[in-house]
Amino acid sequence: MVSVKKKVAFGVGGALIVAAVGFGVFAMNSKGYDTASKAVSAGSFKGDFKNSKSPIKGGVLKVSTPGTASDPVTFAGYSEFIQAAAVQGELAPASNQIFYTDSDGKVKDGGPANMKVDKDNKTVTITLRDNLKWSDGKDVTAKDVEYSLEKLATNEEASQNFTSSYLAIKGMEDFQNGKAKSISGIKFDNGEDGKKLTVSYSSLPAGVNWGDGVPSYALPYHDLKDVADDKVATSDKVTKHPLSFNAFKVKSVSSDSVVKYERNPYYWGKAARLKGIEFHVNDDQSKLENDLSKQKFDVVTSVPSSLWKDGNKDQLAKYNNAKGYASVGTYGSNYYEAYFNLGHYDKEKKTNVQDRQTPLQDANVRKAIGYAMNTGDIAKKYSNGFQEATNTIVSKSDLKKDFYNKSVKGYNSKSSGDPEKAGEYLKKAGYKKESDGYYYKDGKKLTITFMARTGSTTSEAQAKAYIAAWKAAGIDAKLYQDKLIDFATWSSIMTTGTNQDWDVTIAGWSEGTIPSFGQLWATSAKYNMGHVVSDKVAKNLSDTDDASSDTAMIQDIKDFQKLVVDDNAYVIPTTTSISASLVNGRVTGFTTANVNDLYAQLGVTSDNPTKSGNPRK
Questions:
Q1: Contacts of 560 (CB under 8 A, 6+ apart)
Q2: Closest alpha carbon to 616 in 331, 299, 322, 318
Q3: 33-69 as b/e, with b when 16 or more CB fall inside 10 Å?
Q4: Fewer CB near the last or first residue (10 Å), C or N of the chain?
Q5: Contact at 8 Å (CB) between 515 and 394?
């Protein structure tokens, strides 16, 4: 995966694990004071809230990105070290991406850096702004861009955001494997302290116009160079005192996960309208309703779906265009899918091995499990309108419409599941239904272990609903360790890739600007959570990387969806997300459309929040 709306990145991947259904990020790419493209409504939620009042000078915006007390996240001041989508939301006011994008997500000139592609010579030249400086007053240099790529290639934490597209850079593989001390394909046109670097490729990535395979961040080499590599991600320089070249810089990070921002005096662009921003993260969700009643927050970036309503009783829904808040909805750039455990990750060889002795190696068994799932009913009952069952592994975000393969059938045509079709595929796999209602083969009952996560108040109910549906279809199912596990434990199990005690789990992903799949499906990818090793998958990924045109690349991405979903059921698509934000009536400039430097253009119309009424009227 490449850049992102959720992760606001280009080339670094963007395959961020979504900690729980209903949690997202304040979507923000960069365009800075551009005229926003039109945001569209999603589900029952209206599009943008337009505030016609003029903003005051200054003001402090208070933002909440809800989390859970059981799954705390650590602030990371640079995108390279981020693993969960919620953390990217915290960083948004001071993002370290260097490119701007247009309404289609392609890289455009005018941001912190410009990019020039030379297809004949297979090079990309990156030119930083002359006046681009870090918040300590030091120049952002070509070395800073190269240093970011070095960390992605070799640092243990950052490497999980490394995408295979970078391997097309000459010398990258030798550098990554320790055979070279530098990346031979990167040339500093005016020296390391200059503003220009040229990247040479063995073959240009197909999505290069979107930033695929292009170094797209900068890390302050002068500030981090003396920090030990194994300590840099958790160092105070990253988690407490990161530098910024964006409109805001970090002022403080408190122990209760409040990140305070102030204007960056060295920002190259038009000064931010706001004086500062307070980002509250991992707040106790149970307090959110009371916090909103006191107008504690101006923006709730992504409303927890489980708190929208309690049955028929409004909870946060009482602020749906009421009580001083406007609700704003959009289809998120994320989706969820069920994975099957087919092997393990060999850390020494840095590769996945599809060698697990399991009935799941049979595609017919995987398809049966998919058809048995009652995803539609679960989404309707538990998501409060924030999830929709989906057929494929590309989101319904407007930015992904060119890549979304409408012809993929998936497994969710029946909201309550399709036990009959599940049975047909089990019979193809050689199973027979016995008198107890379960399917057997060679005297062994088909039993699966479902590794489900905590994350919302309905997580357990959803997990039990899936288990009940599988059992109703004749597939015995049980919870991993007879309980739900927290996100941190789950993430550790999945990224380590050696646990053989689970069969099925569900993961959510934040997409890149191009929903390509190398970071999730390459044989070497740590995020290849099912440990799929397939010649056809590898060929498609290679064809995508080598596509001769944007049209060919898009077709390869569509073909990939059919290959892994309909043809082989390596994953079962479950849901795609709708994200709703709550915006206080005093906020100006808010949009869910694809804009640059959103936080720089936000403002407030008064020092005090709007306390009543529908701000849309």
A1: 517, 521, 537, 540, 541, 544
A2: 322
A3: ebebbebeebbebbbbbebeeebbeebebbbbbbbbe
A4: C
A5: yes
Average pLDDT rounded to a whole number, residues 470-486: 97
3-state secondary structure of 346: strand
Residue partners of 51: CB distance under 8 A and separation at least 6 = 585, 586, 587, 588, 589, 590, 605, 615
Q: Of 251, 302, 243, which is closest to residue 276 (Cα–Cα)?
A: 251
Q: In this structure, are strands 447-451 and 476-479 parallel, antiparallel, or unpaired?
A: parallel
Q: Is 313 helix (H, G, I), strand (E, B) or coil?
A: strand
- Answer yes or no: are the C-beta atoms of 425 and 433 closer than 8 Å: no
Rounded Cα gap, residues 228 and 240, in angstroms: 17
Lookup result for tokens 């998958």: 537
CB 345 within 8 A of CB 498: yes
Residue 8 pLDDT > 60: no
Specify the DSSP element, H or E, that contains 158: none
d(CA 516, CA 518): 6
Distance CA(371)–CA(168), nearest Å, equals 39
Q: Taking residues 122-150, what's their average pLDDT?
A: 98
The 10s digit of each residue's pLDDT in 535-568 is 999 999 999 888 888 899 999 999 999 999 999 9
| Distance spanning both ends of the chain, measured CA to CA | 41
> 3-state DSSP call for residue 575?
strand
pLDDT digits (tens, 9 = 90+) for 332-359: 888 999 999 999 999 999 999 999 999 9
As a whole number of angstroms, the distance between CA 90 and CA 88 comes to 5
Packed helices 550-562 and 535-545: angle between N→C axes, nearest 10 degrees: 160
The torsion angle over the Cα atoms of residues 134, 140, 144 and 148, rounded to 10 degrees, is: 60
CA separation, residue 380 to residues 285, 389, 453 (Å): 22, 9, 19
Residue 563 is classified by DSSP as: I
